[in-house]
Amino acid sequence: MDPINRITVIAPVNIAVIKYWGKRDEKLILPINDSVSVTLDTSIMCAKTTVCSRPDFSENQLWLNGIKTSFSNPRLLNCLEKIKHIAADQQSVDPAVLSWKIHICSENNFPTAAGLASSAAGYACLVTALAKYYKIKTDLSILARIGSGSACRSVFGGFVRWHAGVNSDGSDSRATQIADSSHWPEMRALVLVVSDNKKHTSSTIGMMNSVKTSDLLKYRAQYSVPKRTDKMCEAILKKDFAKFAELTMKDSNQFHAVCLDTYPPCVYMTDVSHKVIEIVHAYNDMCGEIKVAYTFDAGPNACLYLLQPDVARVLTLIKHLFPSSSPDFVTGLGDIEETETELLKSFPIQPQTKDVIKYVIHTKVGKGPEVETSHLLNEDGYPLNVRQ
Amino acid sequence: MDPINRITVIAPVNIAVIKYWGKRDEKLILPINDSVSVTLDTSIMCAKTTVCSRPDFSENQLWLNGIKTSFSNPRLLNCLEKIKHIAADQQSVDPAVLSWKIHICSENNFPTAAGLASSAAGYACLVTALAKYYKIKTDLSILARIGSGSACRSVFGGFVRWHAGVNSDGSDSRATQIADSSHWPEMRALVLVVSDNKKHTSSTIGMMNSVKTSDLLKYRAQYSVPKRTDKMCEAILKKDFAKFAELTMKDSNQFHAVCLDTYPPCVYMTDVSHKVIEIVHAYNDMCGEIKVAYTFDAGPNACLYLLQPDVARVLTLIKHLFPSSSPDFVTGLGDIEETETELLKSFPIQPQTKDVIKYVIHTKVGKGPEVETSHLLNEDGYPLNVRQ
């Protein structure tokens, strides 16, 4: 342990291409089906967490995005307890250290308001930081899963599969890497952040209602997803983009279909989300092959997957169809010189009202969690930046 | 046959509470599952058709809503041919009459642009008029089905079930009446016509794509609908509104879920449709029991089912939440004195932008097709009203 007892880790966001929806165990967060995701580059989007414990701390404290937050979150407490338990078993640190109170400070480098899977990056980051802090050796994906289901996929870079598992203790419900971040270097993602004021059903509540009320969910979990997951892994390993994209779109649609089959229905996509779907299909039709895939999580934002050579054309199209008053409409890997205007003239869909898409994050496949040297807690164990 | 050889029939619109989606035979229009509908009062919405044939007509002619339209519609030709075939078999009219060309004039008394199931009323009306004209005795629901699947349900009043059947010739794919129009006199419908410029996938194309691509459709047709249909018939016979309403909402949502699971997805509901769903669930929650059901066909318009004592409150709420600049916002059975304002103050959903709902048709359960004495064709067999 360093003299001032701090560990800082960054962890990536992941966006599923085969969706996780429905738990068979609420407490252990065990899913009813496998899922597959792509881990996105931490240089564009990441969570960052510093942990620090000292004998003189009087209580556990938590700061999230610069705001002091209650520590009494059952999932957080559960993760911390499990990790300390493993550390005690493995005798990985001096037993005294385990009795000290802890300070945790965590931030996302992207707006949480964007509705992007921030809890996945957050819990992957937290458990990695704690595991390193207490020097334990264990399957981090299982620990991250206990914090937030899909977080288990953020402990690996590249392309990741979360195996639903069959054991009732969750010991086989873990993530494995299908291929690392260097496997398919042309893969890009464009996250289209949709302007939206609507309050959505939280995914925890939504899933619970789906499991309780949707006939179609059972069929999806038992028949559709297993077949699709195998095909998806194959498409990734073969770098078959058209297949990867088709499976991604079909699975996103089926996940939202199950949400709609829930009673009362959970609706996450808006008219703008559906316009993006229409645009992607029209673009692929025009190209005569599948060049872009869309996928939507439990919110209206679209994540488009595409290959690097198509980014310029697709960004040009998006900027044309979703006019924006923002000077920083495209962020991340950055904007790309517009090269083509022919496409825009003949495209069958007209430009939409201004600013229905807030901004676009241009990113790529990235690595798993990594240790950082710049901390969020000072040498006394208090946040360097606190929002009032 | 009257001296001037004219028969005029009016026929009702029906709105399904268990949806028809997917054919097992495109030509014969045989569905993959049973469906159930409510027939709506012809005094509010109906199709009206006059047929007339004469030895001196040189060609078959068709006028739809005052506009001369090509007769070479395969479904129309198919219906006419089948009916003439039966008439020849039954020797119901002089064989010469069957050789005469025919004039058909048909109108809806409601805007077709409203996207309301006008083809169901239209084909039920046409086959009833032709059957009466040629004096045949046959199952009209089977003939109407050949014109437009759901039209088979419009040949009866009240509550109607279309049996999918199993025979490959369609001889058992017919409608029967569950209960007549006097069975549940309190039942009312409010059709909310949503402003919408979007072009939707036609239901014929949509169904075909769903059958081809949706895994969930197979499960719906085989497992969900049969159970639900039996429960629906029971709820209707027992006049159990809460059960009727719950099944109606679940089935509408599942039908749209299957549309979304189609590749590429068929999307018929808009943000406004989903807002209506949210309002109905919030209203029912507030009442502590299910007082209103929503159902959506292949378009954004909502049909709400409710009982007469609740109409005033629900219309007051709709007018508050969907402000309109139209002086005739509520049509049909008419508007109702607003009695309550307490509800509006505490309702958890805010009023929407003006005019997102164009108008509301207030109607009730009605009878099947009936003969009328005021014709659409004059004594020479030409339309009384023709639009230029």
TrEMBL record, chains A, B:
Annotated catalysed reactions: (R)-5-diphosphomevalonate + ATP = isopentenyl diphosphate + ADP + phosphate + CO2
A GO CC term attached to the entry: cytosol
Domain Mvd1 C-terminal, chain residue ranges per copy: 189-371
Keyword check for Disulfide bond: no
Nucleotide-binding is among the record's keywords: yes
Single GO biological process annotation from the record: isopentenyl diphosphate biosynthetic process, mevalonate pathway
Alphabetical list of Pfam families matching this protein: MDD_C (PF18376), MVD-like_N (PF22700)
Keywords: ATP-binding, Cholesterol biosynthesis, Cholesterol metabolism, Lipid biosynthesis, Lipid metabolism, Lyase, Nucleotide-binding, Steroid biosynthesis, Steroid metabolism, Sterol biosynthesis, Sterol metabolism
Enzyme Commission number(s) from the entry: 4.1.1.33
GO molecular function per UniProt: ATP binding; diphosphomevalonate decarboxylase activity
Domain of life: Eukaryota
Catalytic EC class: lyase
Chain ranges of the Diphosphomevalonate decarboxylase-like N-terminal domain: 11-175
Metabolic or biological pathway, per its Swiss-Prot or TrEMBL entry: Steroid biosynthesis; cholesterol biosynthesis
Described function: Catalyzes the ATP dependent decarboxylation of (R)-5-diphosphomevalonate to form isopentenyl diphosphate (IPP). Functions in the mevalonate (MVA) pathway leading to isopentenyl diphosphate (IPP), a key precursor for the biosynthesis of isoprenoids and sterol synthesis.
Database matches in PANTHER family: DIPHOSPHOMEVALONATE DECARBOXYLASE
Family: Belongs to the diphosphomevalonate decarboxylase family.
Protein name: Diphosphomevalonate decarboxylase
Naturally occurring in which organism (per UniProt): Parnassius apollo (Apollo butterfly)
